[in-house]
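Collaborator request, handled under Task 6.
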Amino acid sequence: MSSSTKNFLDKFFDLCREYQEEIPPQKMAEILRDYADRLDG
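Structure tokens returned to the collaborator:
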């Protein structure tokens, strides 16, 4: 895994932890699926 990828993932997971009280993990997963669909589309 490249350094930039690891750095992104570390920041991403920190962000998820920061917001998990307000946004349920299932909702975060739904948002990420929507984002992936937009990238594919």
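The cover message to the collaborator said: "The mean pLDDT is 94. The chain is about 80% helix and 0% strand. Please let us know whether this matches your experimental observations."
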